[in-house]
Amino acid sequence: MGEAALIRDDDGTGRRVARPRRLREYDYSQDGAYSVTICTDWRKHLFGRVRDGRMALNSAGRAVEGVWNELPVHYPYVALDAFVVMPDHVHGIVVLMDGDSEAGSDSGPALGSATVGSRAEEAG
C-alpha cells in the first residue's frame, strides 16, 4: 500500500489508517468474489517472519490460517480462494455464493457478524 492510500487518524495519535476503499452504492452482500486485507494493529509482525524468501508462520499465524480455512464450515455460503499470511497482514479472496444470507434463513450467520471493530464499520 502506498503512502497516498494512508491518512492520519483524527484522534491526534499520528496513527496511520487505511482509507475505506468501498464503493458507496455497491451492495457488498451480493454474490461475488471479494478481496480482503487485514492488517495487525500498528503493523506489528505478529504472524511470523520471512526466512529465505518464505513465510515462516508462528502459532498466531497458524491460528489465523486455521480460522480462515474454517470459514466455510461456519458460513456455508462462503467459498475460499487465494490466501496468504504475511508477518503483519493477511490477504484473501472470499467468494459469497447463493445470495441467501438474509436474516432468518438457515444458511448460517451473516459473514459481517464475524468482524468486530473492522475499519469498514468504524468508517460507517
Protein architecture, described:
The structure is a single chain. With about 120 residues, the chain is α+β, with helices and mostly antiparallel strands. It is about 15% helix and about 30% strand. The two termini are about 20 Å apart.
Helical residues, percent: 10-25%
| CATH topology category name | Alpha-Beta Plaits
Domain count? 1
Structural class: alpha+beta
User: Mean pLDDT, as a whole number?
Assistant: 79
Rounded to an integer in angstroms, the radius of gyration calculated over CA atoms is: 16 Å
* Unreliable runs: 1-5, 101-105, 114-124
Distance between the termini: 22 Å
The number of helical elements comes to 2
Strand content: 25-35%
Q: Describe the strand arrangement of the main beta sheet, using strand numbers.
A: 3-7-6
Pick out its properties:
124 residues, alpha+beta, Alpha-Beta Plaits, 3-stranded antiparallel β-sheet, two-stranded antiparallel sheet, globular
